[in-house]
Design brief:
With about 625 residues, this protein is α/β, with parallel strands linked by helices. Helix 2 crosses helix 3, helix 2 packs across helix 8 and helix 14 packs parallel to helix 15. The chain is built from 18 helices and 28 strands. The strands form six sheets. The protein has a seven-stranded parallel sheet with strand order 9-10-8-11-12-7-13, sandwiched between helices.
Length: about 625
């Protein structure tokens, strides 16, 4: 007898996993039918154990297990996908079953589609990751050459982009001449569109170029020879739910177990990938790139105006206004980048210094503005928890009405631009004006449809600017650099080069700080010099890839959080762990962390700690190399 653990594949289900008795054993990844509330429902096997090994747990259980009906030759997930999960379980504190479930296409997880039946063969391509560094147009040329070469060998190519937003633009660049071979699977497509795409995917008469996101990247095809990971440095490759999987790790493992080649392409690849390339763990596709050339020069504007009581500082420098005016008069388009959403990222009381914070996450509220017709409302919104409450008129601590907005938000940039340049057409893309990719695309299309205009946006606006603008600017470099992540320098350098990439004439950077080496490298496109400094710093600080971060987080009232902290300490039994609480925690809401910094070459210690971490309760959040550790 066996105990079979499954996850139901039912649309909208709240069930996590179920257990059944079975006289037959089933492989992990088997698609079977299980009885649920009087009906047989599709499910996938996550684990199977002999009854003898689970006797203690069964005796302690407060419920009885139902018997699983015998299954007649159930379909099994391809071995390549199962082997990928087996490799990933050595990197993440998760079970093989939970990783398999994460790799399934969303339609399959929801029970809306059966996993395509295919018997993949193992290929013999070199699966060593290849790094492709270059501008977007240069990468497109390299991809076209690679796709033609793979087609000539009667092989298909899988091209993965981080989000559905990028699909339309990459399709437009690559579709010419291969329309009959193109398969596009996007989460933003309708069910009928995805049905048509899966039907084309099952047609094996011609080799295909399959363009999709990580959500649909693990659908097998016999003739698939190569995988391309476009914008490989994008943070969107990391999932936001357990087991917080990094799809770049998954796709590299997927290529290795199936004998396929894999290319990681970006303008500025991750520093970890560059370290692996220099150590020859990864190879270089094409020539080694030491410097990137762009048509648009990057100019640093040092703002020296002094704040006044009624005006803290001038948001737009005379240089920026002159450059933008010239561009608009010449029928050009301007993009202004703001790092923070809303009117301001922080609201504080001048009299007592109180900062308005979210009670759930203890993070400062952002102040945002919404309009319903002619009515304007202001709200406090937490970027972490999503909490939204009406903005206060007075300080909750001292009752003062002297509240001051701190920092530069995208709505504030928009307001001041409208005041300075009321005759120009201005558009804004942020989380409020563009809650969906479809809405953001509509705003971008309206912007480019104008003969001239200004687009003001946060990070989410960048994917919609591939058509290019004549002039762009970072309104406040200091606000951009204030985001607390250990990747801050790498992210900023990538942002600056990306602005230069889609700008035709000029990029301006406004700052109130002195110019440092990073800005100098961005001005010159000095990629190799930037990596030299970044790698040296990471080696000294023991940051990835020279160490692996494992961050454990939990929250609750102070006493409960302290008890959980003791449990974590006893479970880890490691001197490598660092315990700390969020500095904004209160006795009513304490956010605590334990950070493990493990040497990457000590595999034995890493595996030992992974096994201990797996025993921790599920209310403890566990992330491997998260973007933020504070």
């Amino acid at each position: 007898m066996f105990v079979i653990h499954v996850i139901p594949l039912i649309r909208g289900t709240q069930l996590e996993s179920l257990s059944y008795f079975s006289s037959s054993n089933y492989e992990l990844g088997s698609f079977i039918q299980v009885p649920i509330r009087g009906k047989n429902q599709a499910a996938i096997v996550l684990d199977s154990k002999p009854v003898s090994s689970t006797k203690t747990a069964l005796k302690a259980a407060t419920f009885s297990l139902r018997k699983l009906p015998n299954q007649d030759k159930p379909t099994v997930l391809p071995k390549t996908v199962r082997d990928t999960a087996a490799r990933l379980v050595l990197l993440y504190p998760a079970t093989v079953g939970s990783i398999i479930y994460t790799l399934l296409p969303p339609d399959v997880r929801k029970g809306a589609r059966s996993y395509p039946v295919v018997n993949p063969i193992l290929h013999t391509e070199d699966s060593t990751p290849q790094i492709l560094t270059g501008r977007f147009d240069e990468r497109i040329l390299a991809y076209k050459s690679h796709i033609r070469s793979t087609f000539a060998h009667r092989g298909s190519v899988l091209l993965v982009v981080p989000t559905a937003v990028e699909i339309d633009y990459i399709v437009e660049e690559l579709r010419q001449g291969i329309e009959e071979r193109l398969v596009v699977i996007s989460p933003s497509h309708t069910k009928r569109q995805r049905d048509d795409a899966f039907a084309k995917l099952e047609d094996e008469t011609l080799a295909k170029l399959i363009i999709t996101t990580p959500a649909y990247a693990y659908v097998e095809r016999i003739d698939l020879l190569s995988i391309i990971v476009e914008q490989s440095a994008s943070p969107h490759y990391k999932t936001r739910q357990r087991p917080y999987l990094d799809h770049r790790d998954a796709l590299i493992a997927y290529a290795a177990v199936s004998g396929r080649s894999i290319i990681l392409g970006d303008t500025v690849p991750r520093t970890e990938d560059e370290v692996h390339r220099r150590s020859e763990r990864y190879t270089t596709l094409g020539e080694e790139v030491k410097r990137l050339a762009f048509t648009a020069p990057l100019t640093i504007v040092k703002q020296k105006d002094k704040p006044k009581p009624d005006c803290p500082f001038q948001l737009f420098s005379p240089e920026l206004l002159r450059s933008a005016t010239r561009t608009l008069e010449a029928r050009g388009h301007v993009f202004l980048y703001a790092a923070r959403r809303g009117l301001a990222p922080v609201v504080a009381c001048i009299d007592c210094g109180h900062i308005f914070r979210c009670p759930d996450s203890n993070t400062p509220y952002s102040l945002i503005r919404t309009r319903t017709g002619d009515k304007e409302e202001r709200w406090f919104v937490s970027n972490t928890s999503g909490t939204k409450v009406r903005a206060a008129d007075v300080c909750s601590e001292c009752g003062s009405w002297r509240l001051r907005e701190r920092g530069v938000g995208v709505q504030h940039v928009y307001d001041e631009w409208q005041e300075k340049m009321p005759d120009s057409d201005a558009f804004i893309i942020d989380h409020l004006t563009a809650p969906t990719g479809k809405r953001a695309k509509k705003i971008a299309d309206d912007f480019f449809a104008k003969k001239s205009g200004v687009l003001i946006g946060t990070q989410i606006a960048l994917p919609f600017l591939s058509r290019g603008v004549e002039m762009s600017a970072v309104v406040s470099l200091d606000a951009t650099r204030s985001i607390p992540t250990w990747r801050a320098d790498e992210s900023l350098f990538r942002l600056l080069l990306r602005l230069r990439e889609f700008t035709a004439k000029e990029v301006l950077i406004q700052t109130r700080s002195e110019t440092d080496a990073l800005l100098t490298y961005a001005t010159r496109g000095a990629l190799e010099r930037f990596y030299d400094d970044e790698i040296s710093l990471r080696r000294m600080l023991h940051y990835p890839p020279y160490a692996t971060f494992i961050l454990l987080s939990w929250s609750g009232v102070e006493a409960a959080a302290n008890e959980v902290g003791k449990l974590v300490k006893n479970s880890l039994k490691s001197g490598e762990s660092q315990f700390y609480t969020n500095p904004n925690s209160t006795p009513q809401k304490t956010l605590a962390h334990a950070l493990l910094r493990l040497k990457t070459d000590d595999k034995a210690t890493y595996q030992t700690l992974l096994e201990r971490i797996k025993t921790l309760p599920p209310y403890i959040k566990i992330e491997v190399n998260p973007e933020r550790i504070v």
